[in-house]
Write a structure and sequence with these properties.
Largest sheet: 5 strands, mixed
Oligomer: single chain
CATH class: Alpha Beta
Number of helices: 4
Shape: globular
Number of domains: 1
Structural class: alpha+beta
Order of helices and strands: EEEEHEEHEEHH
Length: 155
């Protein structure tokens, strides 16, 4: 049987101090134990990825006050681990579009603006810390995307 992938958008959020300081937003999920990740979410029917990006940022971190620096050129697929696959049924994984964004100086993060709170805490981390602190099944994707943005000179 062919695998089903949920269309999804993900944001690599840099602090407003970029480019002087390169620090990445990581959110601590409310529904999984000690899982740090970038903001992300499903793309609604008929919604384009960029609109989904702004909507998801507003829902998950309480602000869409960002400027888009770059987009990863391709969709990236990954499979869910079994425990998450059950929760995300009928999907076997996600196909994601990644955007690199910078918080505007007036942006204020508020994790509790949406009914469904996704993150219980957040921090800004270095490139190395992101790869050390994120959950195992996202690491290969994060390495690939961050590596691309680094190679292109954005980070």
């Amino acid at each position: 049987m062919e695998k089903r992938y949920r269309p999804n958008v993900a944001a690599i959020v840099l602090s407003s101090r970029y480019p002087e300081k390169c620090e990445f937003f990581l959110g601590l999920r409310t529904d999984l134990n000690n899982v740090w990740q970038f903001p992300q979410g499903g793309i609604d029917e008929g919604e384009n990825p960029k609109d989904a990006l702004f909507r998801e940022l507003k829902e998950e971190i309480g602000t869409d006050e960002v400027e888009v620096i770059a987009a990863y050129p391709d969709w990236i697929k990954y499979d869910f681990p079994p425990v998450i696959a059950k929760k995300m049924y009928p999907f076997d994984g996600q196909t994601q579009r990644y955007f690199l964004v910078r918080l505007k100086s007036e942006a204020r993060i508020d994790l509790e603006t949406h009914e469904e709170v996704e993150f219980q805490d957040y921090k800004f981390s270095t490139y190395k810390e992101v790869l050390e602190q994120t959950t195992h099944f996202k690491k290969p994707v994060y390495k690939k995307v961050l590596g691309y943005f680094k190679k292109e000179g954005f980070i």
